[in-house]
Design brief:
Blueprint (H helix, E strand, L loop, with lengths): L2 H21 E2 L2 E13 L2 E6 L3 E7 L2 E2 L8 H12 L3 E9 L5 E7 L2 E2 H7 L4 E2 L8 H14 L14 H4 L1
Parallel strand pairs: 4-7
Antiparallel strand pairs: 1-2, 2-3, 2-6, 3-4, 5-9, 6-7, 7-8
């Protein structure tokens, strides 16, 4: 086989790999949509392609439930960042309820991290296994040391899922 043929084959494979790298983000793949609903401090609904509503569970964090202290504040904080906004959804997984588990970005800002930084979510250590989770440990610690959000409570109660 000639050298030019080998170079041609290598170029084809390099192009394919490059295209795959462009479409891949983190451990998943990404798409954009408009936020049309906020269920709580870690779950949103995103309208994809102007027609499909996708329920998104924010990756790596767990927010207080509606009936818990700071549940409404957590939901409001998330809503103020994303409701009605165009977001980038970086898909990480699908949970046992069929929800897309993802990192969410608004104009480049990491919304999951912002919920931790503001003190309106816990780092969900059991499920947060991506490289970014190491950075998020520091965000949670900073929020705790600043008594931000739920950390203003002397003994904040995590959702049952985390306590189990």
């Amino acid at each position: 086989m000639s050298c030019q043929r080998w170079i041609g084959k290598i170029a084809v494979w390099a192009t394919i790999l490059f295209q795959l790298a462009i479409f891949q983000t983190g451990t998943g793949w990404a798409w954009t949509g408009k936020v049309v609903g906020i269920a709580d401090g870690d779950t949103i609904t995103v309208l994809r392609d102007g027609r499909d509503q996708v329920k998104i569970r924010l990756y790596g964090i767990d927010a207080p439930e509606s009936g818990q202290p700071f549940g409404k504040a957590s939901k409001q904080n998330l809503s103020s960042m994303v409701y009605g906004e165009s977001v980038q959804v970086e898909v990480m997984d699908t949970d046992r309820y069929g929800r897309t588990v993802a990192r969410i970005f608004v104009e480049g800002e990491d919304v999951n991290a912002a919920q931790l930084r503001a003190g309106y979510a816990w780092l969900y250590r059991q499920y947060c296994k991506d490289w970014v989770c190491g950075e998020w440990v520091g965000l949670e610690a900073e929020a705790k040391s600043n008594d931000a959000g739920l950390w203003a409570d002397k003994d904040p109660t995590p959702p049952l899922a985390m306590a189990a």
